[in-house]
Specification:
The structure holds two protein chains of two kinds. Chain A is 73% helix and 2% strand. Chain A has 15 helices and four strands. Chain A has helices spanning 4-8, 20-27, 29-44, 51-76, 84-101, 106-129, 135-154, 163-166, 178-196, 198-208, 210-215, 220-246, 257-267, 279-298, 303-328; strands spanning 159-160, 171-172, 176-177, 248-249. In chain A, the strands form two sheets. In chain A, strands 1-4 form a two-stranded antiparallel sheet. A two-stranded antiparallel ribbon of chain A has the order 2-3. By secondary structure, chain B is α/β, with parallel strands linked by helices. Chain B has three domains: 15-250, P-loop containing nucleotide triphosphate hydrolases (Rossmann fold, 3-Layer(aba) Sandwich); 255-339 and 424-510, Rossmann fold; 351-422, no CATH class. The radius of gyration of chain B is 23 Å and the shape is globular. Residues 1-11 of chain B have low confidence and may be disordered. The chains are: A mainly alpha, B alpha/beta. At the A-B interface, α1, α10 and α11 of A face α2, α10, α11 and β20 of B. The complex binds adenosine-5'-triphosphate and magnesium ion. Residues 26, 29, 31, 49, 51-57, 98, 395, 405-410, 435, 437 of chain B line the site of adenosine-5'-triphosphate (ATP).
Amino acid sequence: MHVSTDVLNGTAKATRRRHPAAAWLAENGALVALVVLVVGLSLLSGDFLTVTNLLNVGVQAAVTAILAFGVTFVIITGGIDLSVGSVAALSAIVLAWLATDSGLPWPLAVLVALAVGLVCGLANAALIAYGKLPPFIATLAMLGIARGLALVISQGSPIALPDAVTHLGDTIGDYLPIPVLVMIAMGLITALVLSRTYSGRAIYAIGGNEEAARLSGIKVDRQKLITYGLSGLFAAIAGIVLASRLASAQPQAASGYELDAIAAVVIGGASLSGGKGRAFGTFVGALILAVLRNGLNLLSVSAFWQQVVIGVVIALAVLSDTLRRKATT
Amino acid sequence: MTNDDSPRGGAAGGEILRVEGLRKEFPGVVALDGVDFDLRAGEVHVLLGENGAGKSTLIKMLSGAYRPDAGRIVVDGEPVEIRGAGDAQRLGIATIYQEFNLVPELSVGENLALGRPPRRFGLVDTKKMHERARELLARVGVDVDPRTPVGRLGIARMQMVEIAKALALNARVLIMDEPTAVLTTSEVERLFAIVRQLRDQGVAIVFITHHLEEIPQVGDRVTVLRDGRSVTQVPASTPENELVRLMVGRPIDQQYPREPAAPGEPLLRVRGLGRRGAFEDVSFEVRAGEVVGLAGLVGAGRTEVARAVFGADSYDTGEVLVNGRPLPRGDVHAAMEAGLGLVPEDRKGQGLVLGADIAENLGLVTLRRASRGGFVDRAGQRRAAADVAGRLGVRMSGLGQEVRTLSGGNQQKIVIGKWLLADASVLILDEPTRGIDVGAKVEIYQLINSLTASGHAVLMISSDLPEILGMSDRVLVMARGRLAGELAAREATQDSVMALAVSEVEDARVH
Ligand SMILES: Nc1ncnc2c1ncn2[C@@H]1O[C@H](COP(=O)(O)OP(=O)(O)OP(=O)(O)O)[C@@H](O)[C@H]1O
Ligand SMILES: [Mg+2]
């Protein structure tokens, strides 16, 4: 036990002079990792670098990426959203149930499904901002509630989707899968909101120093409503995309996806302590996960080992996050 | 104070530490560019220099926080490498940093024992820990319960806890980076008594301050840094204006250039404000064109009142009116809309987003105003930021520099700058010039003048009494959570203010 740590906590650690290229690499480590992964897999498997496979990877990445874009907002504020997988499933179930069982016109059903996602997000925010629950607990509760409601409404079995909605899973022409287009659109929206809008800038400030943000006149509670609301809305969109690919809404769909989403955000360079994160980073993070899963499949690595590998990758990403923070604080 | 005037050469012993040609570069800035400095046992060696001159960077190399790019550090005649805080400690070097390193959630006792709490059967011995903490706190004369979370102390008390923490190390080299920046006269006296006592025991002390009047009181020698270079070394008895010239490169003819404006309508009215356990029955007004000083001892409740007025905290009784309209309680946003602004005392905890860049921080208060239809005019924000950074003379590598890496004084300028941009009609300044060098202070006073000249008003809290006396048109004095009195500029003197500041304290004890 050295006294040292207490004296040094929070001040600059010994810093080495860094080359600009090294600095760029540290900032864009995820992108470099993705490129290495793609090159490596192309060499290892002849099937990897084919159009069909790459489109497949894109479609695989889409749901995780859309969820992760929503979670990016939350993580930048220094919060966490564990409920997105369940909310995605609930929204899809509501959509299918309204359109099929209740005979609501499908565009209306889609709107209601989106509203369900939004409301779940707002409920999270209310618990966090006004109920002062830690985000982990509030969204863990929502994880259970939304999943449970999905099971209740569907009575535990899949519900078929109206045809119009299943077309969302189609591919336009030969090369434009709609899920990929939706992912790109959501990514651009995320980037725009984060970098250009009042709320975007405000949530970086909240994540960086909530008290300083509040004393600068930012209505922190309202921004949290927006943040978690967006996360819920994005989850609903992801749920619809996922259901359209499967042609039915399943109450157990997307379980565990929240962890992939969080992993994608963190791999993409966001900091779980808030204030840092980018849409592009999250996009790359989601691609890394999808490429990794796809590659391991192509290399016939067993599903059991795949879990191990993915776990290790997540650990490495978070480790590099903490190391990076150590180096800059 | 008596032994203060006798020459101290007797106590000063041999050289303990020396640095030669020290150099340190950060991306975009050369922070140190050839610094020579030496330290003897039993002396207080003052480091003097403008904001960003490199004082903190120098001492961080002695404490192992940074490694020099060139040059060497010699301790006891041997060149050494100080690779981390562990090395520094083995060499007997303890440091009080300019920015606090306390854990706000932990208690004072835990902070004081951090890293090596006393143990019994492998468990932390809380009783012993608090006992030790009480001793340390008594030594620096701070009256707080060791069980209080540090986050609840004001910054002056936090500073005293930092000092106590460093004293506990019993080092032979003690480095103090602006320990007096937030202390009032009585704590400064106390600190100086401790410093003199340590010096007489042969401890070598490096002391950084922007309060030049303190230099002859505790210092022996002064090394002046300018733009990362050690330019000269002079005795601490050097006249103040000479020190200023050495440090800034030009003389300053008027430290407090207050130009009183004719007071207009009352802009801010506070009536019977009270919160249990903090302050009671506080009533005052601030008129257009006025600078009203708010003086008092640490713990008198000045910051609490300021925060309540601004809506940062709530209150139990009374009301706050801006331009005749009452403000809702505890609503910062409403207070801002009504035209209030607050530069908080704790820049790290409440003023800045340390991980964000300068432009981002300067634009935070005006973010809403710079938005149209939800979209921020970032180019406009940047222009405004560049303008105010220029006016305040912020020393930076660019607007994209992370605020965390600015020097302390320059960070403070950012907190002030973001509120200057807000154009608040009543600006509350809580220790506005904390850590700001003498030259830049004058710039800030001039900005205050131009605010009041254009019909705005300023309420200024400061522990720096000369600043209160030099810049206020009226001085309010608080003691024990109450307004003890009000003095017009011409009747306010060091003695009259202090008399009020301690008066109520004794009254309160009688009851
Ligand atoms: N980690 C860092 N990264 C980049 N620049 C830095 C870093 N630390 C310090 N600097 C720069 O080095 C210069 C010297 O800073 P330093 O903190 O030593 O100044 P100072 O003399 O202590 O000033 P002050 O009186 O304001 O405390 C400043 O321009 C500062 O911006
Ligand atoms: Mg400094």
